[in-house]
């Protein structure tokens, strides 16, 4: 029994001990889930089909696409005026405006005006607050 | 030390503004106290520890309390901790007694919040003094216990445990840090990504993603449900609030506050359990259980005292053991990390000023919450009508700032936000549990150090069982939590089948 429980940890490979153990436990738990939840797993194709059918594709995929474009543009634009945070400001204004228009249901001018005001004032205020008051680095 | 020396105008202003913003976040369905803390976390960066915590604790107390507004007026819990508030407060509002229901909630929230503070003040230092005696073995076991408790109390225990271990696994990505006694080697990193994943995924972008971006994606998937118009909500004043409604509610207030505090102390269990358990206990011991669910003031008192008592309770394991009590306090770990302070058994002893500041901040936050909500409840009620299409893009922008500034401006952290935002949305779909995942992610690196060091020191697996009587007690607790939750799950399944 004493031999069975004895463990020698080699310093050179000590970084793998815990990840291997957790990986093995995850594998076992995964197998247990496969067995216990087999009905739900077998029905997952239907669940995903229903999710995509019921999903508001325009808003969901549009939000994702807008976010990716926002992240991609922030740094290159910021590099034109380094250390000013203008990359953040110039990307955030159209992002907030477009995302709000995307999320909106009835797109009337009456509703659009507050959106555009928030899209302009919000990022400007945050940019000023973070870069001028809190001295935080922005892209 | 002079506790009043802590109360500077800036300190109070930060608490009050934090509470105000927290109430607004809590009051908007879909936005939570956790989201409020996540979004405002980068602001604490340049505030210093005490002032930063003042802001975050205000947000925490305000966020939990604000959740009551949509629960009362719309029947939608603003935060998960307000689930049971809907049972009685919404029927009361439907009768035109919204204002009365809100005022009852606010008073019960204040009592629950202050009760839990007393527990925090006395219990956390005692637990920390005790935990100082823990060696690596006991420290590992306490983390293991925390993980089993929260996984066992998940809606699906197996998925809860899996989520916790998945969180640990992902937290191990990167280098095995030399400063923690590791060997400095990489693991779990695809070749070529060492530059970005050297230290793994940063905690705060992950937290902001899971509680901010994932929630927005979920709302976007549902098509951004419209907010109610001012004419659709019923604050009403047909039946004026009177303090006489609290007559004979002392036991209920005490019982619910005690349950909420206890649930808060259990790692990772969260506000919804505190709220529902307080409600169930109050109904079981009530003289008028038949009135519950039809607009009973007793029911509202129980749930609101219970969920606000969670706030102080959840800080007990955080400040004494370094283990977050709920998802919001998990974010507070990030705030401490930002200031280079480690929470754990030595925290209170080594940082008496911060400890006192936290207690003072919590008292002021609770009082500020009461004053604001009691006297301006009609204005806060209007918050539920603010359109989400205006709020969510701004929140998204704040999430980006939070992720970017946390590590002095690393763009990879912003991409982490997107990766984990999508992961969070997927996790909700496939029923993975976010709270165990987060706690696993936070505690994973410490668990590894304690586990490996224990084995390096003793060279035998039996040490986890034989090291001390504390280890034995912890194993008993671990087994009891798992067995207890299996029995509870079976009982509720049997009851559900009967119904």
List the chains of the largest interface with their residue counts: A-B, 68 and 64 residues
Q: How much helix, percentage-wise, in residues of chain B?
A: 55-70%
Query: Major beta sheet of chain A, specifics?
Result: none
Number of helices of chain A: 7
Radius of gyration of chain B (CA) equals 22 Å
Radius of gyration of chain A: 25 Å
Count all strands of chain B and give the number.
2
Task: Report on this structure.
The complex is a heterodimer of chains A (139) and B (499). Chain A is an all-alpha fold and 139 residues long. Chain A is built from seven helices and no strands. In chain A, helix 5 (57-80) runs antiparallel to helix 6 and helix 6 packs antiparallel against helix 7 (109-133). Chain A is flat. Chain B is an all-alpha fold and 499 residues long. Chains A and B meet through helix 2, helix 4, helix 5, helix 6 and helix 7 of A and helix 8, strand 2, helix 10, helix 18 and helix 19 of B.
Could you outline the blueprint of secondary structure elements for this entry?
The complex is a heterodimer of chains A (139) and B (499).
Chain A: H1 2-5, H2 14-36, H3 38-42, H4 44-54, H5 57-80, H6 86-103, H7 109-133
Helix pairs in contact in A: 5-6, 6-7
Chain B: H1 9-27, H2 33-40, H3 49-66, H4 68-73, H5 85-94, H6 98-131, H7 136-152, H8 157-171, E1 174-175, E2 186-187, H9 194-197, H10 203-221, H11 250-265, H12 271-285, H13 297-321, H14 327-338, H15 347-350, H16 352-375, H17 377-381, H18 388-405, H19 411-429, H20 434-458, H21 463-466, H22 469-498
Antiparallel strand pairs in B: 1-2
Helix pairs in contact in B: 1-2, 1-3, 1-16, 2-3, 2-10, 2-14, 3-13, 3-14, 3-16, 5-6, 5-13, 6-11, 6-13, 6-16, 7-8, 7-20, 7-22, 8-20, 10-18, 10-19, 11-12, 11-13, 12-13, 18-19
